[in-house]
Design a protein that fits this description.
Elements lengths: L3 E2 L11 E3 L5 H4 L6 E2 L3 E3 L6 H16 L9 H18 L6 H17 L4 H8 L10 H11 L2 H8 L5 H8 L2 H8 L8 H16 L6 H14 L3 H16 L10 E3 L5 E3 L8 E6 L4 H17 L4 E6 L4 H10 L6 E4 L9 H4 L7 E5 L5 E3 L9 H8 L13
Parallel strand pairs: 1-3, 7-8, 8-9
Antiparallel strand pairs: 2-4, 5-6, 7-10, 10-11
Helix pairs in contact: 2-3, 2-4, 3-4, 4-6, 10-11, 10-12, 11-12
């Protein structure tokens, strides 16, 4: 079943035997959402990590799964998160497994972050004076939820040197490090460095920042940092950036077509491709679609246009196609469980919008590319310029 997922936590020196329950037939038919199933782990006791996590999930469900999926207000979510915290402190007081105890802490932290409990509250209670857990999935998930966009948030609160000047004009890591030091929440050098790495990843793909400048800063950080985990992250970022640089091979992918089959980027081999990502929930990306239609009409069969819908439900994608029949180019849905990574993953899309220009040899000609509203048409006109017939001037 393509929409069924499950996960297991693996401890060192432990042999696992697992069972999977059968999914209910009515849930299997719903292809719009992923259906999570809990694996059964055989031969374990109540202190094994997966058994503990299953137990925690039961406590969570008792508090947050309401009858008829009744809506919970923010204040109710706050109270229930605090109640869950108190229940877990008592229930797991005898547990010594540090990974599980952090799992509980940062799962509850993520609940608080999801209802915007407050930046200062979240950092003070879950980040400041706590060790950074680079190897802990729940910790890093919370960290990203807490600090994604933090640099631009700090920039909006301080006068003087701007974030755009530090990155785009100077490409200076030391200046960026000092700039972020103005913030009271992240005085720790190691924490500040990780926040910079987290946000530079997103800024690299933002149309407001120069990719080469961001990459330059990441390179400086990789050389200057004294933290091996940060050096590893920086080097991995640079390697990924190199994959998406102009002149590198465009990553391939598979996605769902409007008729429910799978289409691949390889099917357009030998053609120029303008690839864009959009969502029906992203107003700015939707504004670009009619402009793509206009460019397509002008260029005719000279190139291929491919749009990838990043909605969280395929039904929204189908509804959008039905409402816009005039959009007659290739518009696919970003989903394919047979591949380990989707189109969105392969092109490192942050959010729900992105643009790439791929040449007829399969290499990136512009990455990220300009959107229609930012002038991609001028670039395409220069590529596909049609020579005008010349006429001699004279007297008739």
């Amino acid at each position: 079943m393509e929409n069924v997922t499950s996960q297991i936590y693996v401890e060192p020196d432990f042999v696992y035997a697992v069972t999977l329950p059968e999914a209910e037939l009515d849930l299997q038919k719903n292809k719009d959402v992923e259906l999570p199933l809990n694996m059964g782990v055989l031969g374990t006791d109540s202190t094994e990590l997966n058994a503990l996590i299953f137990d925690y999930q039961e406590q969570y469900n008792k508090l947050f799964l309401t009858e008829n999926n009744r809506f919970l207000s923010r204040s109710a979510m706050f109270r229930r998160a605090d109640s869950l915290q108190k229940i877990c402190v008592q229930r797991y007081a005898h547990i010594k497994n540090s990974y599980f105890l952090d799992y509980v802490t940062y799962s509850i932290a993520t609940i608080n972050a999801s209802v915007s409990r407050g930046e200062n509250f979240l950092i003070a209670n879950y980040i400041s004076n706590h060790p950074i857990r680079y190897d802990h999935y729940e910790y890093m998930t919370f960290f990203k939820a807490c600090f994604t966009g933090y640099l631009t948030s700090v920039a909006s609160q301080h006068k003087g040197q701007t974030l755009f000047n530090i990155i785009n004009a100077k490409a200076d890591y030391k200046a960026l490090f000092a700039f972020l030091g103005q913030d009271k929440n992240i005085k720790s050098d190691s924490l500040r460095e990780l926040v910079i790495l987290t946000d530079l990843w997103n800024l690299y793909f933002s149309p407001d920042f120069v990719p080469d400048a961001v990459e330059n800063i990441v390179s400086q950080l990789s050389i200057q940092t004294k933290i091996k985990e940060h050096k590893k992250i920086a080097l991995e970022m640079m390697a990924y950036f190199a994959r998406l640089q102009v002149g590198s091979l465009a990553p391939s992918f598979s996605a769902i077509t409007k008729d429910g089959t799978f289409g691949t980027l390889q099917s357009f081999k030998g053609r120029w491709i303008y690839l864009n990502f959009f969502s029906t929930e992203n107003i700015e990306s939707l504004k670009e679609m009619p402009k793509i239609e206009a460019i397509k009409k002008k260029l005719g069969a000279k190139m291929v246009f491919v749009s990838i819908c990043l909605d969280d439900s395929i039904s929204k994608y189908k509804k959008y196609l039905k409402a816009n029949p005039k959009f007659d180019w290739t518009i696919w849905y970003n989903y394919d469980k047979s591949f380990s990574k989707t189109a969105k993953d392969n092109y490192a899309i942050v959010g729900t919008e992105g643009y790439f220009l791929i040449d007829n040899r399969g290499y990136l000609a512009q990455s990220p590319a300009l959107s229609p509203s930012r002038g991609i048409e001028f670039r395409l006109n220069s590529i596909f310029k049609i020579k005008q017939k010349t006429t001699k001037t004279g007297i008739r």
